[in-house]
Amino acid sequence: MVRSGLRQLVLRPKFGTQLRCVHSEEKKWQSVAAATATAASLSACANAQENLQPMHTFKYSDTTVRLAEPHQLQPKPDAAGLQFGKLFTDHMLKIEYHQRLGGWQKPVITPFENLVLHPAAKVLHYAVELFEGMKAYRGVDGRIRLFRPEKNMERMNRSAVRSGLPTFSGEELIKCLSRLVSIDQEWVPHSESSSLYIRPTLIGIDPSLGVACLESALLYAILSPVGAYFSSGFQPVSLMADPQYTRAFPGGCGDRKMGSNYAPTIHVQHEANLRGYQQVLWLYGPEEQLTEVGTMNIFVLLINDEGELELVTPNLDGLILPGVTRMSILELTRGWNEFKVSERKITMGEMIHSMNENRLVEMFGAGTACIVSPVASIHYKDMTIKIPTGSQENPLYRRLERALTSIQYGRVEHPWAVPID
């Protein structure tokens, strides 16, 4: 009861809590309750901006599982014919968040199904949405492993803070994802050229128009067996670098994994394909800094002005995504201590100067989906910058690919690989 003499309020948690009132006095108290809840939501949103540690989180131990019926199970595909993100497994994970119900609700693993959203859900109008990309690998010993999943959780929470979405315990979500993968473990390809892609997604589902902190959200995860990201495999690709297009800017969200970063790139990618190039090299500013290539981080191996062999990747200045593969490449190469490894600004001017003096050695993209992708050329304005990546006797990108996949597929024991028991 809300107050003596008033009728009881009815809670409907499907799309956030709704209140049914029956007379004017009740409406008055409903307004007070709504204002209080809104104030609490805004306060929680403000607090989230300052602290990634969630005040409340879901618990893996509360997870319930509803398995698919035999007639709902799909035949497992041939690993040789897998395309990226075209096929999905039999189950999914869903965790709701409702401010008025105390925050995060219990995790549920269900048969794969469509989502039901209110037409005014914030994700549909204001792109209140973020996601992560991870993989599960079936090792040479038959065990299934995740690759540095805690780094994905850290990045996902950073994206949540910037989006006004609720944060959570990364450790608990890793446990939930591991359970989901273990249920659909036969979908993890028995192949060292394939893997199971994991897509955790967090969206705002408030049924109201208005750009404001939300009260309801949905965290869900789906799984997809995948082969090579690029159909060309390890064939070096060509890039289009057009200064009129910018992917991100200082103070923006280029360093967060939000869907709003990707939609504006689709038209530019299509234009690059029409011109005969495979990917877009994103430039920024009057100096035309290299930032990312397609949806990947970028690396350049060159001989610098001091005559040193140097591996360069753009520094984390807010323009680019802090990739887990990027981080791993930096840590591996610094551990080798065979050449200089730098996180610094690199411009088209430096690329052209290095090409003219025959000091470019290799260039490659790096990311979870592709691991590494070699680059053969950059088409910029009226010129082509040729990079001898594919003609190296023992290219660095191949060496890195072998080192990373040896960890992911369990050919070597490494703390970055987290087994799923």
From TrEMBL:
Modified residues (N6-(pyridoxal phosphate)lysine): 257
Keywords assigned: Amino-acid biosynthesis, Aminotransferase, Branched-chain amino acid biosynthesis, Pyridoxal phosphate, Transferase
Known catalytic reactions: L-valine + 2-oxoglutarate = 3-methyl-2-oxobutanoate + L-glutamate; L-leucine + 2-oxoglutarate = 4-methyl-2-oxopentanoate + L-glutamate; L-isoleucine + 2-oxoglutarate = (S)-3-methyl-2-oxopentanoate + L-glutamate
One GO cellular component, as annotated: mitochondrion
GO molecular function, one term: branched-chain-amino-acid transaminase activity
Keyword Ribonucleoprotein set for record: no
Cofactor: pyridoxal 5'-phosphate
EC number(s) stated in the UniProt entry for this protein: 2.6.1.42
InterPro entries linked to this entry: Aminotrans_IV (IPR001544), Aminotrans_IV_CS (IPR018300), Aminotransferase-like (IPR036038), B_amino_transII (IPR005786), BCAT-like_C (IPR043132), BCAT-like_N (IPR043131), BCAT_family (IPR033939)
Alphabetized Pfam families for the sequence: Aminotran_4
GO biological process, alphabetically ordered: L-leucine biosynthetic process; L-valine biosynthetic process
Family the UniProt entry places it in: Belongs to the class-IV pyridoxal-phosphate-dependent aminotransferase family.
Protein name: Branched-chain-amino-acid aminotransferase
Organism (species): Frankliniella occidentalis
Gene name linked to the record: LOC113206114
